Amino acid sequence: MIERIRSIHFLGLIRNRSLQNFIFLSLIQASNILITLVSMPLLITSIGVDQFGLVNLAFSVMVIANIFVSFGFNLSGPRAVALNQQNPKRLSFLISHILGGKVLMATIATGTILLLIFGFNLFRDYQTILALSVLLLFSEATLPLWFFQGLEKMKLISVANVISKLMYLAGIVLFIHTPAEARWVNLLLGGCGLSVNLLVLAYVRWRLGIVFVSPKIRRILRSLQSNLHYFLSNLTSYLTFNGGLVILSFFANSQTLGMYSLAEKIVMVIRLFPSILTQSVYPNAAKLFIGQPEKFIPFMRKVYLGGLALSLSFSAITFFAAPLIIQFLAKSRLEDAVFYLRLLSLIPFLACLNMVNVLFFLVTNQQQQLFRVSAWMCAFMVTTASILTYQFGVLGICIALLSTELLHFVSFSALVARKNPDLWRRFYLFA
């Protein structure tokens, strides 16, 4: 009888849509991590540490530009789709206008980057690599992850992501062999992603009965306006936690940049865990907050404690296994990279501390407050990182990132206590 009860409970967990979201979002990130682990040593061996640093720097610029392309739809899109799951007409309208808006943003971003390269002669050390990386913008624009997240049907998009990453890995093996071919790395990644995204959209059209309509520019502009604070929050948050490489590029040579890039890439991949957990539980948290408020705090507390335990484990493993990780990825000891990785290893745990505060702002739809704190933290990080990096090099950027993560949690907690005192007391004081 006990075994039967346990079996029923387990099956109930598997059917839980929040858990399914977490599993498939984790699968997406796990496949990204696995491909990164496999591709990094291949790239370092083929194009060298110097060119790898430049490729990663160009990729970082594209990630920042992709925040402009997504323009907050990664936060507003899933919620809008979730509220209209049974309305195909409304879903057709949403996907057409969101895709239209993202493609418009990708076109503007591409034009701006090419103008900066060829019109103002910026990014001199990696102009060709950066120019060929713009296909990543259209890969982001056509990625319908937000749509399937809102439908709470993540299996297809998870499989599609794995396929695109395997295509990218095969392309590295087949076509990237010398430092001169470093220019094609990000183009290859963007091309594989775009191709698979278009196939997924074709599936959405023919198998899910979604009709793509001609988006109206006025409606797109209204959507962009309503998403402004989400976009600004995403942008400032990214600059805060991922802008270290760009800042370091002004003070360090390509060899040091490559060493730091290797360590940062590993840590920032692990730092995705709090983001995955937040995205997975957000739909259910919002429903509980509105429909069953008595269950909201216990649910949040359970998720939070579990997230802290896992993130602390990830940080500890990264610290102690740093020499083995660097040896595996770079095929050499690279003592400086090991030192940087150990310094940054606490970041995933510090990032998870703030997960519950972010969810509080999301479920209460306080976009402006979310942006204000993010903006202050971005200003703090850029200022602190610039000063400390100028004085202490890579050690300075590591200290700046760690202190920013900690201050981020303290600032958000204080703002939650001021703007949502009831939530703060119930969660933190068990009141």
Q: What would you note in describing this structure?
A:
- Helices cover 84% and strands 0% of the residues.
- It has 22 helices and no strands.
- Helix 2 packs across helix 14, helix 8 runs antiparallel to helix 9 and helix 18 packs parallel to helix 21.
- The longest helix is centred in the N-terminal third of the chain and has 54 residues.
Short summary of the structure?
By secondary structure, the chain is mainly alpha-helical.
Q: Provide the low-confidence segments as ranges.
A: 1-14
**How confident is the prediction overall: mean pLDDT?**
86
The H/E string reads HHHHHHHHHHHHHHHHHHHHHH
What is the helix tally? 22
> What is the number of independent domains?
2
What labels describe this entry?
431 residues; mainly alpha; 2 domains; 22 helices; globular; disordered N terminus
Topology:
Layout: H1 2-15, H2 17-70, H3 73-82, H4 88-119, H5 127-132, H6 135-141, H7 145-151, H8 155-175, H9 185-207, H10 217-226, H11 228-242, H12 244-248, H13 254-270, H14 272-291, H15 293-320, H16 322-330, H17 335-344, H18 347-353, H19 355-363, H20 367-392, H21 394-419, H22 421-428
Helix pairs in contact: 2-4, 2-6, 2-8, 2-11, 2-13, 2-14, 3-4, 3-7, 4-6, 4-10, 6-9, 8-9, 11-20, 13-17, 14-15, 14-19, 15-18, 16-17, 18-21, 19-21, 20-21, 21-22
